[in-house]
Amino acid sequence: xxxxxxxxxxxxxxxxxxxxxxxxxxxxxxxxxxxxxxxxxxxxxxxxxxxxxxxxxxxxxxxxxxxxxxxxxxxxxxxxxxxxxxxxxxxxxxxxxxxxxxxxxxxxxxxxxxxxxxxxxxxxxxxxxxxxxxxxxxxxxxxxxxxxxxxxxxxxxxxxxxxxxxxxxxxxxxxxxxxxxxxxxxxxxxxxxxxxxxxxxxxxxxxxxxxxxxxxxxxxxxxxxxxxxxxxxxxxxxxxxxxxxxxxxxxxxxxxxxxxxxxxxxxxxxxxxxxxxxxxxxxxxxxxxxxxxxxxxxxxxxxxxxxxxxxxxxxxxxxxxxxxxxxxxxxx
Amino acid sequence: xxxxxxxxxxxxxxxxxxxxxxxxxxxxxxxxxxxxxxxxxxxxxxxxxxxxxxxxxxxxxxxxxxxxxxxxxxxxxxxxxxxxxxxxxxxxxxxxxxxxxxxxxxxxxxxxxxxxxxxxxxxxxxxxxxxxxxxxxxxxxxxxxxxxxxxxxxxxxxxxxxxxxxxxxxxxxxxxxxxxxxxxxxxxxxxxxxxxxxxxxxxxxxxxxxxxxxxxxxxxxxxxxxxxxxxxxxxxxxxxxxxxxxxxxxxxxxxxxxxxxxxxxxxxxxxxxx
Amino acid sequence: xxxxxxxxxxxxxxxxxxxxxxxxxxxxxxxxxxxxxxxxxxxxxxxxxxxxxxxxxxxxxxxxxxxxxxxxxxxxxxxxxxxxxxxxxxxxxxxxxxxxxxxxxxxxxxxxxxxxxxxxxxxxxxxxxxxxxxxxxxxxxxxxxxxxxxxxxxxxxxxxxxxxxxxxxxxxxxxxxxxxxxxxxxxxxxxxxxxxxxxxxxxxxxxxxxxxxxxxxxxxxxxxxxxxxxxxxxxxxxxxxxxxxxxxxxxxxxxxxxxxxxxxxxxxxxxxxxxxxxxxxxxxxxxxxxxxxxxxxxxxxxxxxxxxxxxxxxxxxxxxxxxxxxxxxxxxxxxxxxxxxxxxxxxxxxxxxxxxxxxxxxxxxxxxxxxx
Lengths: 332, 274, 372
Known about the structure:
C: mainly alpha, 17 helices, disordered C terminus
């Protein structure tokens, strides 16, 4: 209450005595995008106030992507969601909180940025890992989180699966590949960050499958002990953005929420994405960083291996899916 | 005990009423919600969710590890409580205060730190791993971290009893010619049974429900080091609330029956004592 | 209770012989002490040192910055300091009531009740959080109503404490002796029922008449502070009760019976006999409950909504910093929790010094008129 009052007083002061309208937006996002959205929010609020005189405070919420989606489904007052996967947005939309056409409201299927899965290896790449088949060479230990409990986990699984299918392998080839791959995973951490700690601090494993932006953070944190290897082919990660219709209509924030997400497509915001190691939607901005920050990776969409993300998750990861057969003890 | 008390001592209906009210609102109602949700599944769905081979392996590990850790805590807790109450030594206050730390540390931190200590390049792992003792990403790791989170319980339930123990008992026992060990076994230990059992029950049930610390140290390999709560999380990731609560209900029912059993034991041990 | 243990308290008989009877041989003593210390060092000290080393790995300046420069971290500390005391007091009152009912009276279903009190412990924290989501969530049983017109429940909710106050006052004012009971105390059941209904009705109607609460506003339980309190109270539910029951049983009802027979009313008996007798159990219970409440992660993770600076408690903040690749920052907050725990313990030790140790205990045993 006190803080609200203070904020109100402050905004009144800033507006130079004119009673400024004050609005808050809640952006529900996934780990670890806090720094990214903080930069974007700072720029957006400044711009928006200049253009309209309305002062916006953007609150952020971060957590595991599907945990966040469940929170929104269960009543967290999100104005916009910027989650890691279509799977999560789709789950929200199915409850009626977002209209079914949410994906077509913003350019490029509501994707202001994309990402992919790359390899992180130890300094000098001692095991000579350059492509997916290298991961199943004898003696190579792979670190990747549990696909059942982690978004990064299932995305890595899809990437591994697709690396076989897209190159013309059969379903059986793909099953054999992922089976061999996960036999070489010594630890299935429950989340992406846990897997990073296992790989970096505990020095377990030879290669870590990670989102491109997290790989950069990881390499930076390790101060020269690690390097990134870009596989020739990997999955197209699609973190959609969306306005939660039901909430913005009730809170009367639709206009600002839409302006906010539209802003993410501006050149300024696109630069910010790139600086945080996410691949921007804008070709010109992307080109500037291609080759230096972003490796040349052929990224296949989820439709190359399944109908869509929910379908892929059900087939491969869900109860009774391909992943479950990998660990089944033999002879039973 | 005293049916008579009810007439003499005040407050029976007030305290019992409030106890039931608070218990009902805060505990029974939410648990009922859990059961109702699980009941929304058909029997086949329910059975398919809770009784797969993998789930059985996970239940076994969860209850087994919690049991082993609780037994270890029983012994360690008795020892610690005894030492803290009976002896004086430099740094005693410090040791006394450190006993509660496992509760205050968020369990995830405990799991992270433990895993870091027992891996091959960790502070303790560098000595243990060459000996073949894998303290991280193994069942041993799960037990270790459960001992850690359950440590305060037995100590803190036994300590007050031990402090209030009437010294005359021991004196009498000694004057009747009992050795110290006999006195301990036949005089002191029986008075501690209820507290020990309470402590065991607390440590055990804490171990069954523990999630945050275990996921960091267990390695989560299906059939080997995968605990039951992680199955719940996995089902939640699929937005399958019903199946997730079904597994939760199974865990609840098993641990509740065990708690009931332990409490019956406690009652019996007290009756025996009187 | 300090170094010398309970032997201090007993002066009536020759202290020498008791001391001897309680004395273990030196080798046993030191053997046990060293084992105990080793256990504590391996299980607790080394991990804690590890936390502080990680927290300070980038220097003390960065450590302080991590703690005080970040407003989200400051807010999380404030939130924890709000949520924990509320949950603690609620569980304390419950613990006292439950321990009194269970330890002093025989009634059918007592064992079942004790087991039920333990139950929240074995509920995985994730599930504990999930249960509240199932009730208060938008897809849950009460969620849609709370969203539509949540404040409509407030008159009823706030009237409940008023009824409780009425009942307690009724018993407090009730004359000790049967003969002196007149008026409403002559038919206590009838009076209580009618009185409660009247108080409840009056409060409810009053609040609705004066429109104390806003209409058609959504009342946030989960993803807000009330949800955090509920989840925390749930996971720490058993601590005080479970700590008190064995202590109360060990002390026995004799002194209380004596106090009552000498004319003390319930309130006097409670404060002058019961509380001093169970104070160690009480202190340990509060400490355990507090420690667990401060460190709770799993259940609050589910009901928090993770809004930075608003619904992040300290453990959630630790996790968030960890997720953001700020390892020293996350261990810095963890070290604060550790320090908080140590301070609680120091407070306990101070308390022990202030209250004269076991002396008054046997004294009271000989002189139950203390209960007057």
